[in-house]
Specification:
31% of the residues lie in helices and 20% in strands.
Length: 162
């Protein structure tokens, strides 16, 4: 319940063993029929982070992150998008459990998806699904969330859980 999207980071690196732990969290995400149609990258090189940020006009903060995780999926697999979304959420929750902030940046269907794949040297059989920036938060926004009764029901629409 404390997780929020973070777009401003302190210039503090994340230790490599923690990055590996987060990648392991991604690997253990649920996947339809256990297909595991994914590939995960972790970018820490500042120049490379700047290049990714330049490709993603809605996410200039990528350049200031300690790491940017890249989630790629095999679009020839029926449920690659759902599977990779689950892996993306595992990355975000793994980071949160380690005390780091993150922000999910879209990738699938974006015009920069192929450019990011090419920049990172990922084979053409994969498609960028998401990017996740991460680091020590410099600022955490806390926008209001809808109340539970506005977004949920019990058994049938219109019935509320008590």
């Amino acid at each position: 319940k404390s997780r929020r999207s973070v777009r401003k980071f302190k210039p503090t690196p994340i230790p490599p063993y923690m990055i590996q732990d987060v990648l392991d969290c991604a690997r253990l995400a649920p996947t339809a029929k256990n297909v595991q149609p994914w590939l995960f990258g972790a970018v820490t090189d500042k120049a490379l982070l700047g290049e990714i940020a330049a490709l993603a006009p809605n996410a200039p903060f990528i350049a200031d992150a300690a790491v940017c995780f890249a989630v790629f999926g095999r679009p020839d697999e029926t449920y690659y998008l759902e599977d990779c979304a689950a892996a993306t959420m595992n990355i975000i929750l793994g980071l949160q459990s380690l005390g780091y902030g993150s922000c999910w940046v879209d990738g699938d269907k974006k015009p920069y998806a192929d450019a990011v794949r090419d920049l990172l040297g990922v084979p053409e059989g994969f498609r960028l699904v998401s990017l996740v920036t991460a680091g020590q938060p410099a600022e955490i926004a806390n926008p209001p969330k809808k109340r539970l009764d506005e977004v949920s029901f019990l058994d049938r629409y219109g019935q509320q859980a008590t």
